[in-house]
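Re: the request from the purification team.
They wanted to know what the chain is likely to look like in 3D before they choose a buffer screen. I agreed to run a prediction and write the result into the notebook, where they can find it.
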Amino acid sequence: MIEIWSKYKRAILANCVLSSVEANKGVNYWRNSLFATTLIFILPLCFIALIPSLFLSTFENKEYITLLHFITIGLMCFIAFVPSVKTATRKLIFSLTVYAFAITLNIFTSPSSGSVLVYFLAACVYSIIIFDNKYAYWWSHLVLFISIFFGFAIAFDLIDFSHNVDMSSVNEWIAVSSNLIFLCYLSSALIPKIFKGIENYISEQQQLKTELEASKKALQVKNEELEHYAYVASHDLQEPLRMVTSFMHKLSSNYGDQLDEKGKKYITFAENGAVRMKQIVLDLLDFSRVNRPSDKLERVDLDALLSNYLELREGTIAAASAKINWTDMPTIWTIKPLITTVFHNLLDNGLKYRKKDTAPSIDISAREQKDYWEFAISDNGIGIESQFYDKIFKLFQRLHNSNEYEGTGVGLSIAKRSVEFMGGQIGLHSLVGVGSTFYFTIPKKINERQD
């Protein structure tokens, strides 16, 4: 039964709805969608309406109602299922059929009572909705013409209304039909205004979409330029740095005994500068890659990730007598290289900016919220003044010179960019001389954000 209903709907939609490509032209696509949906449900209702129609035909000798129903059902089937008929033609036949249905009922029933006039109002309003705005008043004019026709028919006895006791005078007909005409013309004036607003909204959305696509293309060009720069930085710029380092080493080896202490110090400065420059180039390369990771989402065991960090930094941790503590870290669905980068940079930060004569102690915690995971990494290091909270996340921004604490000022920038790419946020709270707590969030539905 469900399969039959699905085929039935698909057949009507295929005949009556514009293609999805034409949806961008405005509200016509949605007018036709509404029309098709109406057909889908009106056909079963027409068959259901046959039950009281057959009752009236059998017990009250009103065969014309049954005949009217069969004609209406035939026209509806033609509109819904006959192929190669323009949608506008289908809609016109539909509206005229409803008007004809209402006229027939008015002839054989009591129109001045007002009940049957609802068909005219419904036909008028519905036709205004499914047709273009420029035809809005046509349907009200048609209702006016029909009302005038019935007024003349009543006044000059053009049709036998003797069986309709309520249709006794022109005055009574005018009193009832005037309300109908007023509502029809009011609908003709107001409904197009609504659709005009919808069309303007769709037009604005299309313009915004076009601008967004243009911005996206421009951003892709910039990303390609950045990738090209990153390639140059990782290959071409490193070669002269290697040459500087190599020649400084040869100069020190071959002519070191001919240099005084100042000369040797200059060579050391040059070597250290070249090493530092190479590290900056590599960090900048990593920073440029954050927004375009090629890795897919996967389940990441954070306990295993942190254990791996302890192995990688075993020498550094032992030299500083540091302690890194955590309990019950979750397994989350995320991008492993990015979450690894975040933890590594924040933990490296905690090990690096430690107080003199104080062993680093770092605590890692995780707290599950409804839509995201919240992580915190706390240390007992030197701390950061609150006015520098934003500065430390900016590229190449450092609060200390390289003689005090080594580094390039890129690590926290990479961590921030990685967290934000995954849809989270990062921040910190710190007290100078007491320590810092870096916290960041990772959404549970990161896969939706990445798409």
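For the purification team: Residues 170-235 form the longest helix (66 residues).
Please add any questions underneath this entry.
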